[in-house]
């Protein structure tokens, strides 16, 4: 029996990441999510020493829909997660899954050289990371 194949996050991440400004409203953010078929958006840094933020569908469901707030009156910065836990593209997906479990998160930006190069999620770890699912 051979050892399991090591799979880096780079192999399973979604590379087409959409960035938004934290000052746009949730309605506009949802339009962008729908257009690019994404379940999360990266919120841009405001300046060099700032951190990235992230907006997930679940944030909108919990903090806008469930609370009956008007999405055109809520800005992204009000409900986004910031700072966010990030991972390196070379991280083994097993460690990424453990990190998600330890911190109770489901998505993370993949950062290389201080730039977001992708997004990884439980969904991608399972469907793209496990061998022989075809």
Radius of gyration: 16 Å
Main sheet? Answer: 3 strands, mixed
CATH top level?
Answer: Alpha Beta
Oligomer: single chain
Q: Structural class per helix/strand content?
A: alpha+beta
How many domains in all? Answer: 1
Please trace the helix and strand order, writing H or E for each element.
HEHEEHHHEEH
Predict the CATH topology.
CBS-domain
Strand order of the largest sheet: 1-2-3
Q: Label the overall shape.
A: globular
Word description of this protein:
The protein is α+β, with helices and mostly antiparallel strands and 134 residues long. The protein has one domain (9-129): CBS-domain, CATH 3.10.580. The chain is 35% helix and 17% strand. It has helices at residues 9-12, 26-36, 57-65, 76-79, 93-103, 122-129; strands at residues 19-20, 40-43, 53-56, 107-112, 115-121. The strands form two sheets. It has a three-stranded mixed β-sheet with strand order 1-2-3. Strand 1 (19-20), helix 2 and strand 2 (40-43) form a beta-alpha-beta unit. The longest helix is centred in the N-terminal third of the chain and has 11 residues, at 26-36. The radius of gyration is 16 Å and the shape is globular. The two termini are 22 Å apart.
